[in-house]
Write a structure and sequence with these properties.
Elements lengths: L1 H6 L4 H22 L7 H20 L5 H9 L1 H13 L2 H4 L5 H12 L3 H4 L6 H12 L4 H10 L6 H24 L5 H4 L13 H17 L8 H16 L1 H21 L5 H30 L1
């Protein structure tokens, strides 16, 4: 029994998230000490978040409280947002080159057009409202899907963790691509290519789009290739289709289609970014199932 308890102390997704978090925080500490990062909070926030995850793992392994079991796994979703921000604070320092020219070249060579410019003919207020909302759904669907799988009578904790692990592998694995092939996205890299402004019907949408554009310009975010906006929605759709079919047809499937279109319409991604996410997502789903099956078998021994 003690063997099982010790093995249970960390799940694969815990190890991945904590390993990436620790490495990124150490790099942040270096850049803070050398003066590149100006605010101590840039280091303290991800460090505190990692500590919270570690404590949740520790306490949950000593308790049968259902709330701790839920929190221990769910917290990986907000943790990623914090670690992503930490990583982006120095990624352009590690690799100051941008490869938007290469991604656009791939689009033109493979697909024969720049689809973001082609979409200018369809820009209108109503479509902007709908697609902006769809684009924003990326920030909601992982949480919603995790909750629905976790509390579903038809799915198990291992299915929920398969979903979470696939998402975690996709999220953190993409950091490698962001470092090797940093790109800002069409709107930031090639503003001269566009003549039609993207304007919504509501002040809320316009404010969101303006804040998004300003944030991307000022923060040096480089997360274009592959599109994990699209990739995570593909993972979500896969698990929704397998385990929550009504949720798939009524929610994740239509939102997934619109979100994919939105990444191009809003000039956040190149078409190659979406295509590249498909094999990556396939690998994430396959690897997560293999890892968790191996983990479950070891835990029973």
């Amino acid at each position: 029994m003690q063997k099982n308890r010790n093995f249970k102390q960390s799940f694969p997704e815990d190890k991945i998230a904590i390993s990436f978090s620790a490495a990124i925080i150490l790099i942040q500490v270096y850049y803070y000490v050398t003066g590149f990062l100006k605010e101590l909070s840039q280091v303290l926030i991800p460090f505190s978040s990692m500590v919270v995850i570690i404590l949740l793992i520790k306490f949950q392994n000593k308790s049968d409280l259902k709330a701790l079991k839920f929190a221990r796994s769910y917290m990986h979703i907000p943790l990623y947002g914090i670690i992503f921000t930490a990583f982006q604070s120095f990624v352009h320092k590690l690799n100051p080159n941008d490869y938007d020219w290469l991604l656009l070249k791939w689009d033109l060579y493979i697909f024969g057009l720049d689809i973001t410019r082609w979409m200018e003919q369809y820009i209108n207020g109503w479509l902007t409202e709908i697609l902006t909302l769809s684009y924003f759904s990326y920030y909601v669907l992982p949480t919603l899907t995790f909750v629905m799988l976790y509390f579903s009578k038809k799915s198990s904790f291992i299915i929920t963790r398969n979903y979470l692990l696939a998402v975690v592998i996709g999220w953190y694995g993409a950091f490698v691509f962001y470092l090797l092939l940093p790109a800002a996205g069409p709107d930031i890299a090639f503003p001269r290519h566009y003549t039609v402004p993207i304007i919504g019907l509501s002040p809320l949408t316009d404010n969101y789009l303006q804040n998004l554009s300003q944030y991307l310009k000022e923060s040096f975010v480089r997360n274009t290739f592959p599109s994990m906006h699209f990739g995570i929605i593909l993972i979500t759709n896969y698990f929704a289709f397998k385990h929550k079919r009504n949720y798939f047809w009524l929610c994740t499937f239509p939102l997934g289609i619109m979100l994919g279109i939105a990444t191009l319409y809003l000039r956040q991604h190149y078409l190659i970014d979406l295509i590249a996410s498909i094999p990556i997502v396939t690998a994430c789903i396959y690897i997560s199932a293999k890892i968790n099956n191996k983990y479950s078998n070891k835990a029973l021994n």
